[in-house]
Amino acid sequence: MKIFRLENMTKGWFVGDFDPVVLRTRDAEVAMKSYEAGAKEARHMHKIAPEVTLIATGRVRMNGIEYGAGDIILIEPGEATDFEALTDVTTVVVKTPSVTGDKYEC
Question: Cα–chain-centroid distance for residue 66?
Fold first, then answer.
């Protein structure tokens, strides 16, 4: 058994084909991310990997739509989104496959 700490991972990503990582795989990427109210991510898209975002706690705005705890958003390849934390937020994000560089700002 090995033990890791989320704060030692890059931006909450702990599964995927990158370093540091708990489980290296090209099959998927998984992250648990925390944001303070007011935090934003620039509008971006992925060309290859669909992205699934679970809002675990808090409220966010993506593409002008508000989501809250329990909402799961599927973003298909080629779809662009932005992100704004309306409250303190925790998300769980899954992308498949793990493709280095598959993030394009719009």
Answer: 17
- The residues with which 13 forms a beta bridge, in sequence order, are 10, 31
Between the alpha carbon of residue 11 and those of residues 57, 62, 64, the distances in Å are: 17, 19, 24
Q: For tokens 């931006």, what's the residue?
A: 11
CA angle 61, 17, 54 (to 5 degrees): 25
Cβ within 8 Å of residue 7, ≥6 positions away: none
Give burial (CB, 10 Å; 0-12/13-18/19+) of 87: middle
Block means of pLDDT (10 residues each) for the chain, 106 residues, are: 97 97 98 98 97 98 98 98 98 97 95
> For residue 54, which amino acid is it?
L
- Rounded Cα distance, 33 and 92, in Å: 6
Q: For the whole model, what pTM was predicted?
A: 0.94
Give me the pLDDT at residue 79, please: 98
